[in-house]
Every structure is written in structure tokens, then in C-alpha cells.
Amino acid sequence: MQFATSTFMVPVSDTDIEETMTFYRASPSGRGPSNAQELAQARATRASSPSAGPVMVGMAESGGRSVPTRIIVPEGGFRGVHLNLHGGGFYMGSAAADDARSSRLAEALVVVVVGVDYRLAPEHPWPAAPDDCETAALWLIDRAEELFGTSSITVGGFSAGATLAVTTLLRLRERGMAQQVAGAALQFGTWDLSGTTPAGRLIADEYFLDAYVGHVTDRTIADVSPIFADLAGLPPTLLIVGERDILLEDTMTMATRLSLAGGDVDLRVYPVSPHGFTAHPTPVAAAAVNDITTWLGERLDLDDGTHSVATPQSMPDDREHAMAWDDASITALRMAVASGGRVLVDLLRASAFQAVLQFVADALIAAVEDGVTGADAVATDVAAALRVRDWSGDLELAEQIDAALTSTTPMLRPLTVDLDELSSLLEGDMAYGGGRIDLQTGQTWPDNVFEVMDKEMFDDEALDDPDRWLFVECTGSRAGYRDMEDFVDSVVDEDLAEKLRIALIGRGAFRRFKDVLFSSTDEYARYHLFSKERKAGRARSWLTDRGYRVRVGR
């Protein structure tokens, strides 16, 4: 058995990694305040991020204690409540500073988001913050049904907020209430504040520790350093951390301890990313935020009948179909695709789905096969739209939908493979692209992985077995270049179109093209959908030619 960071690394395309690295090269990370004076300066310069919608300011009260809250309610109903604990090293930050992030989560996850303005160190050192977070959690568990009509609750935390989320759950467990929380999404928390573990010693000289727990004699107590706690009996947890986060080792250790305690734990490490990366404008961060939203959605009760899914408005033509999908609606769509069934069908019935045909169709086929009400009608419309669009892979997909609608036994063998990952093998860098698909699991493997893999995992004979592997030869990036050319032809703004045509001349066209396109938020988002659909269609066509079709994991 191999146990390595790479085992938990989330696959990200080379292009997204390069864009992310470019951002960090231009924006080097720094350390937090190192004394009270620097802390005061940092607090003075930090600004809140305004919410995209209305915010209700209130007080959570329980057991004679109270704490300020900020409540954001999505439009069109909701299916649960998410308790959000902000970050900031226990000595900075606020619920208001998280308003924009909370608004996006509320709309994408279709939940009420309750932010907690817990007291900050050094003015209010431990145990003030965990006391406040416990108060908010007890209030929410007691009043959620009355106030919001749902008892489905999740909790999440960012950095110090993740630490406080776990101390809150530990306190709830002592009251026999931890299982009333459906799941906890924990982003790069600090689990050892004692400085006694190897991971903890990496941050032992940080000022935030003195500010928050400098007065505590034994910092290994569970309410300060959750890594030392009995972690049994906690709800499912998702641990998110960047590959270059100083807290990577601490997070991996925490995941191990949660697992050994019998917990349902999902550890995900994201490449080339430092501490706090999910707040940065990078493709890797966007992928992580989507993953968090999807994971939380899976923890909630999708069929409790108390909510409606937020959807984009239908629009009349192909270009506007793509413009209908903003970040929040794309995230809602990802969640619906992951959930499948009636949630997906209801969303597609009210959406401009013509821009996301390849993305939604496999989950829609599964809904048809499962007999979900309304799936047949939506699938018929999707198949018709595929035939009208007629990009690579569209006709093959329309035929697969037809087979599902008529209960015809498909001639293609099912394979649980991710088209994005397959596309990365097919259209990556010629020097590093190519690979194989494991026909037993559907997992994609780049060829360069086998150069460093433990030989005990696969012997040479197993690696050459055509019954085990479907070999993928890299075709290079020429098709992606043609996508950019075709996209330019659809750009209405002539000045932007001309700049894009110039960007396509010579080496480095992909980077220049995206740099120019980034100046137009709407067109950049439209290109992302356009490119994703084209790549998925080509990957599907390649797969069909080899006798396989995509099967959605159920």
C-alpha cells in the first residue's frame, strides 16, 4: 500500500496549474501580523466584501449567552442552513468580511448561510471564540426548524474558522448533538496549537498563538488543539488544503486521526496552492470551491420538499444561452449533475441548457434509465439540441439518449470515466500528454505517472494488458487552437475580437488569448463553457470510436 500526498491530490489540468502558478508568482504570499502593532494596522486596512443581496443582522442566543450573526437567504427557497465560521487567525476577520463568499455559497448550495461574529483575540482570548461558536450552533439546532423550516444543518470554516468548527462539534458531541449536523467542510484549519507535534512546531513562533492561547498552560487540550481530541462520533468531514500550505502536514495528520476514530473523512489536497487559496482568483481555487459546494450538497437532504433550486433564466439564442450561466448557476448545475434525478431534471426544465449539453447529458441519461418523472421530455429536447448544434461528439451523444428513451440495449460498453480527465490526456502537452484508462475503474492515468510509480503496484505484464487498459495517445493542442479561432468569430465586440485575433498569432497564443479575454468577464465565462463543451465532445467521440460510452457512477 502506498501512502503519499499524491494519493489525495485532486487532478487539475496543466493549463489551470500554469494559470494558478502565474498568479502566485505575481502575488507572493506573506505572513500574518507578528505583534500587536502590526495586528492593529492589518485590521485597519482590511475591508468587508459586500454581499450580492440583502443581509439580516441578528443575535444568536442560547444558555444565557449571545453572539452577533449575519444571515443571508438565497432567492427562490432553500433546503438547509449552513453555519459559516470566518477565518483570520482568531484575531482578525468578521462575518461581514465573508458576505460575498457567503452569498455565493447561499445561491449555489441553495441554503441559508449564518455567519458568526465571534469575539477576537487578544482582546478576547480563548475560550471566547469557541464559546461564541457553540452558542451559535446551539441556537441554530434549536431554532432552525422554527425560523427556516428545515433542520438540515452543515457547518464550515476557513482557516481559524475550521479549527473552531471542530471545537464546536466536539462540544456538541458532549451534549449528544453532533449528529444533528449533516457534515463539516474544513478549509486548512490549524489542528495543533501546542507546538508539540512536528506539524505544530512549524508554526510555533506565530503571533496569533500568543494572542489567542498565550495564557493557556496546557495547549494540548481538545478545545485548543483538536488534533489531541477523541474524534469519535463526529459528522462526516471534508478537509481541504493546498499542496504548498504550511498546514499540509497538520491537515494530513488530522485526517488520519479522524479516520482512525471511525469517522467519514474526505481529504483533498490541491496542487501548487498555499494557505487560504480558496479565496484567491485562480482556477485551482475555483475547482476547490466547486468541490466544497458539491460535497456539502451531498450531505443535505435533497428530497425534503422544502426548497426550490435556483436556476438561470432561459434566453433566446446560442450566444445568450451561454451568457445565462454565471458562477452561481454553474455551481448549482454542478451540484444538480452530481445529485442527478429529479433535482437535475427540474433545473434543466427551467434553464438555458443549450450551452451545457455535453456536461449534463450523461446524468440525464441516468435519470431516464431510473424512470425519473419528467426526464424523458427533457432528454428529448436535449437530444434535439445536440443534433442542431452538431459539434464533435454531439450526434453520438444524441444517439445514446435515443437508446435510453427507447430502452434499446446500447451497443457501447459502459465506462465510468471523467471526460475532462480524458480530454487532458488527449489534448495535453505532446511532451507529457497521453496515458491510459483503467477499464476496471474508469480512472485515467497519465503516462508519466508510471515512470515514478512503485513497481509493486503494477508489473510490466499488467501494464501492457489490453483487457485492463484503454491506451490514450496524445493528439496535441491543435483542436483547442481551432476552438479559440471559432470562438473569436462569435464575439460581438469588434475591438475585442480583433485583439483576440492578434493574440492568436505566434507562440504563446493560449496564454495571450486568455489574458485578453479576461478583460471581459462575460466573454471569459462564455469561452470557458464553449471550450469545456468542445473538449468533452471530442473526448466522447474518441471514446465512442473505441466502443465505449460514459456511465455515471451511482
TrEMBL record:
Query: What SUPFAM superfamilies has UniProt attached to this entry?
Result: alpha/beta-Hydrolases (SSF53474)
Out of the domains of life, which is the source?
Bacteria
Give the keywords, sorted.
Hydrolase
Q: Where is this region: Disordered?
A: 25-53
Please verify whether the record's keywords include Hydrolase: yes
Residue ranges occupied by any Alpha/beta hydrolase fold-3 domain in the UniProt entry: 83-278
**Which InterPro entries does the record cross-reference, listed alphabetically?**
AB_hydrolase_3 (IPR013094), AB_hydrolase_fold (IPR029058), GDXG_lipolytic_enzyme (IPR050300), UPF0158 (IPR005361)
Q: Name one Pfam family in it.
A: UPF0158
Q: Which GO terms describe its molecular function?
A: hydrolase activity
Query: What PANTHER family does the record tag this protein with?
Result: AB HYDROLASE SUPERFAMILY PROTEIN C4A8.06C, ALPHA_BETA HYDROLASE FOLD-3 DOMAIN-CONTAINING PROTEIN-RELATED
Q: What's the protein called, per UniProt?
A: Putative hydrolase
